[in-house]
Amino acid sequence: MSAIPKIDRINIGCGYDHRPGYLNVDMDPACKPDLLLKDNDYSGIAKRHYSELAAMDVLEHIHRAQTMATLLEWADLLKIGGHMTVETSSILGVARLLASGRKFADHYSCTIFLFGNQVHAGDFHLTGFTEATLRTYIVSAGFEISSFIERDNWIFLTQSMRNLDWTETLDTHRKSTNEVFLEAAYRAALNRLPEEPFRFMHLRDLAYGLSRRALLKTLFSSIERNYHVASEIGF
Q1: DSSP assignment string, 85-100
Q2: Nearest-5° Cα angle at 14, 11 to 17
């Protein structure tokens, strides 16, 4: 089921924060979202449709290894020029709070900041961020960051605009052979051609049914891309 066309703002991981004028999406049926997401499957939501995306206190609940893949999925929901607001936890911010006092109550609160309330399924923090990692991930997913602040000494609040379509290669090479598509995908994500063992592996996987989108997403999610972007933005 695709998103309601007239709504062009989406609130990912809404919890009980249902926002008027947004498609409120969550995986927990208890919070009664407008759209129930199952198994992190975004395929039922309209692509390149939304002008605004909010993800407040969501990213830390996602497995660390899925951070980039998640941001790429969020990017693919937005139009080029669409805006994303992400709020998530700062590891160093929490560390500074821990180091600044000795009171049990303060330290207890900091453990919640780090690991979540853990009172129901999904209420666990599976990762955390520093300015270097969060900026790198957001830019790697095709965004230009317009605002990046630390709120309450331990929460990153970021605003960014989608300025790159990581799926563009799928459109421009829709009728190309797998080999031509593969080379274009590597250039788009990593600015190089695939090494021979990986060329063979990827072409085999594509021949056996791996989707081009899945392969492209893997390349854009790669740590190699993160390292290149981090270097370009000064980290």
Answers
A1: EEEEEBHHHHHHHHHT
A2: 105
Q: Which helix (H) or strand (E) holds 143?
A: strand 143-151
pTM listed for this prediction: 0.94
β-bridge mates for residue 11, sequence order: 24, 54
Which CATH superfamily includes the segment(s) 9-162? Vaccinia Virus protein VP39 (3.40.50.150)
Q: What is the pLDDT of residues 26-56, one digit of tens each?
A: 999 999 999 999 888 898 899 999 999 999 9
DSSP assignment letter at 225: H
- CA neighbor of 184 nearest in space, from 215, 141, 205, 227: 215
CA distance 48 to 39: 21
Spans of all domains in the chain = 9-162, 168-232
